[in-house]
Amino acid sequence: MASSSSSRALLFFFALLSLSAVSCFAERNEEDPGLVMDFYRDTCPQAEEVIREQVKLLYKRHKNTAFSWLRNIFHDCAVQSCDASLLLDSTRRSLSEKEMDRSFGMRNFRYIEEIKEALERECPGVVSCSDILVLSAREGVVRLGGPFIPLKTGRRDGRRSRAEILEQYLPDHNESMSDVLEKFADMGIDTPGLVALLGAHSVGRTHCVKLVHRLYPEVDPQLNPDHVPHMLKKCPDAIPDPKAVQYVRNDRGTPMIFDNNYYRNILDNKGLMMVDHQLATDKRTKPYVKKMAKSQDYFFKEFSRAFTILSENNPLTGNKGEIRQQCNVANKIRD
User: Fold this and answer.
1) Are residues 161 and 175 both part of a single domain?
2) Which of the chain's termini has less CB crowding within 10 Å, N or C?
3) Per the annotation, does 23 bind a ligand?
């Protein structure tokens, strides 16, 4: 009888312990749910709609903003974390990522501030710059005719830029395909995902400073000869003036439309950068290039999947980071 009472007491104790553990886990989960769909449902219900409307207005006024938003997400999220570190200005102590050579040609950051100001009017101190950066990129893709991608939110902003490690994380257009594949794999993005994300080169432009090594002192024989005169016309100098805006449109056929024409171009040796050329010739990536050239639906499906993974790369959530008052400067630390 005593043994039975002891057993019941022991079971009761373990039941209480289990309930306590579940309760603690639930509390921790409630404090930091991570990234979730419609994170601002209660705190700023109109957040995503405000961003959408601002992107529409800005795109109507400045079409090129869509390319900037799309490039922003890659340059921010690929460098260790999706935390809007790209948007921070340089300080006396540290150089900003956006000041680095690898960020050459990036601009239109002021329009992120316009979106932030609109959100601050709607619900002050609630929506992070990192969520604005990711959602504006999503809306930019839609403006250009690409797919709408449902994305989780709840990111918080980092307090420092990471210029010193940018080269370590950000793939370069002249790197080998093995290095590019490895850097994307580190973010959890597989080979078809990499091929799809580079499909962003379907829109926008490539600055001459990134092309001239394929034109001077001799033209790269791997370039389609029919495409070379146009490239030489747009990039007439072996050493372009960095202050001059000299560029070639990535896709002459549909330069303002997010479509799969890019893949047909690179299969025809009209890829501007070495990474474009390698994508169409490397045995690991070529099968996916051919598949995306044939099917825009497949391209959109893989792009949406890879874009989502990129947007969720190591975010700050819960009590980590902060909600910046301005996207270009970290908040002042109060005593």
Assistant:
1) no
2) C
3) no
